[in-house]
Amino acid sequence: MSTVLNTKERIVELGRGHMQRIGYHSFNYKQIALELNIKNASIHHYYPSKEDLGMAVIEKDRQDFMQFIQRMKKAPPMDKLDALICAYEEYFKNGIKLCVISTFSASFNEITERMQLAIQQYSEIVASWLAGALKEGLESGDFHFTISIEEMTNHWMATLPGALLVGRSRGKKYFDMALHSLKKSVQSS
User: Fold this and answer.
1) What's the number of domains the chain is made of?
2) What pTM did the predictor assign?
3) In this structure, is residue 15 part of a structural domain?
């Protein structure tokens, strides 16, 4: 099914892509206006402030992740983790973008409290889902690791965005090695 995005949705998608590639503070409305061949004022009509667009980007990404959770609901634990890794591989392939959580976490001290809260809540959703997948894998015997689920969740939550960030300067080989080590981390004894 092909979905045609309206202008408001296209603004969010383009904003998300720019923010993931160059960061929230480096991004500006002019970049979207040029791509959509509209005036900045048209963007301000939908998103009066940069914070409003940032919040829309966080919310859209959160909604996309909730759909991901639903699609993966009945998948085996390793398939869930593989799907998450695939998402990060796509970020890397598509212009070495950061995930949205990393994008806003990188400028966490400079964004508004409203945005800080939104990104913290989104991060907790991801961490909770990941912890559930890890627990499911331990209980089924698919995963073998000796640290706590909370520690393993934190390891994955730090390594995935870290691989994207450091992969920018160290290259694809480093990025791939970091993701491979994540998969191995749930299979060690």
Assistant:
1) 1
2) 0.92
3) no
